[in-house]
Amino acid sequence: MGYVNDGLRIYFLCSAQSQKVQNLRRDKRISLTIDHDTSDPMAITGLSMAAVAEPVNDPAEVEKAMGVLGARYPEYAAFPIPKMEEFLIFRVAPKVISVLAYSKEFGHTDLVTL
């Protein structure tokens, strides 16, 4: 899933009718990883997080998130802009972060305290 970040604050968009939105309405807790694909499992590096995802309702924060999105993905400017009622912007707030460093040993993580 695509995302943008502003420091530790992460944003993503999704369809208002999606299964993801239905699930988040029931439980805002999420787990996620941010990494890159590698063919060597011992080269895995990235972040693993326990977080909370909440819809962004403040128009100023929506505008800020859309600005960050446009800056990261300028190619999206050519796509038609969906109507606000068709999608939601979520703010993800990490609660626990682990740094993945499999080069140290398979499955190695270092816990980051927030």
What does this protein structure show overall?
- The radius of gyration is 16 Å and the shape is globular.
- A hairpin with a 2-residue loop joins strand 1 (4-6) and strand 2.
- The longest helix is centred in the middle third of the chain and has 14 residues, at 59-72.
- The model has no long low-confidence stretch (mean pLDDT 90).
- It has one domain: Roll (Pnp Oxidase, Chain A).
- Helices cover 19% and strands 41% of the residues.
- It has 114 residues and is α+β, with helices and mostly antiparallel strands.
- The protein is built from two helices and six strands.
Which fold name corresponds to the CATH topology?
Pnp Oxidase, Chain A
Give me the count of strands. 6
Order of helices and strands: EEHEEHEE
- The domain tally reads 1
Percent helix among the residues? 10-25%
List keywords for this structure.
alpha+beta; 41% strand; single chain; 6-stranded antiparallel beta sheet; globular; 114 residues; Pnp Oxidase, Chain A
Write the layout of secondary structure elements.
Blueprint (H helix, E strand, L loop, with lengths): L3 E3 L2 E7 L3 H8 L2 E7 L9 E11 L3 H14 L14 E15 L7 E4 L2
Antiparallel strand pairs: 1-2, 2-5, 3-4, 4-5, 5-6
In short:
Helix content is 19%, strand content 41%. By secondary structure, the protein is of the alpha+beta class.
